[in-house]
Amino acid sequence: xxxxxxxxxxxxxxxxxxxxxxxxxxxxxxxxxxxxxxxxxxxxxxxxxxxxxxxxxxxxxxxxxxxxxxxxxxxxxxxxxxxxxxxxxxxxxxxxxxxxxxxxxxxxxxxxxxxxxxxxxxxxxxxxxxxxxxxxxxxxxxxxxxxxxxxxxxxxxxxxxxxxxxxxxxxxxxxxxxxxxxxxxxxxxxxxxxxxxxxxxxxxxxxxxxxxxxxxxxxxxxxxxxxxxxxxxxxxxxxxxxxxxxxxxxxxxxxxxxxxxxxxxxxxxxxxxxxxxxxxxxxxxxxxxxxxxxxxxxxxxxxxxxxxxxxxxxxxxxxxxxxxxx
Length: 326
What we know:
Helix content is about 45%, strand content about 15%. By secondary structure, it is an alpha/beta fold.
């Protein structure tokens, strides 16, 4: 296929159309910077509760941390009250986030129980009230909306009502995960649905999401569905090289897997960035979670995974790296 077109979100030029998704527990500043160093042109924060952004505390300061190398970046909001979401969007605008992203897709049970995230796929009128309020509150920033194709198997009418209404309200783009909320991450993502969405909005910006685990998947989603961009979520956890690999494929090259020494260097860099963000008390616990995913690229993935699971201290961490990557 021809090299993909440049992706833009309103007035924000992104560039190469493979972007890092917002993922709770993963897309913190450390992970975003690593992915950017390997070719991700755009990223979003972890989902932030709107009411939490209105109070200056330690958690908010960690979640909203940015870096000069972390642009353009979206602040992702989650909530169910239009007025609170609008106030939070204004805070993100003032902080210098390039894009305000609204999460109407999260399938986590406790999020749904509070009427947030994917629960809004069953409340299209409320979802659109939120979009309109946020667009008014942050007029300098493109507003994007993350949706799933439906809440359950009852039909996709709510998706079409929200998507059309969001664009009418001034949204710059939709990111569409091609599963239902009830599916969570089970089964196959419906890429044919993504193709229907793009066909319905040929002049709008549509970003596809779901089942992008390899560099080849990035280009194949664009080819098969016509979407303007691809959101890489779980596929970038443990493999931030996916962005460099997708760029190489798009330019006519081949996918090159990272060597053992490259894997170790990146994992150590991840540890350093995570230590700065969370401090020495929490860095080992946080990195163990990521490293279990990094194990998938090791020549002996089961051995590597077991070694990382056993890590309990900084000494354990160093011993595991020496044993696995010497």
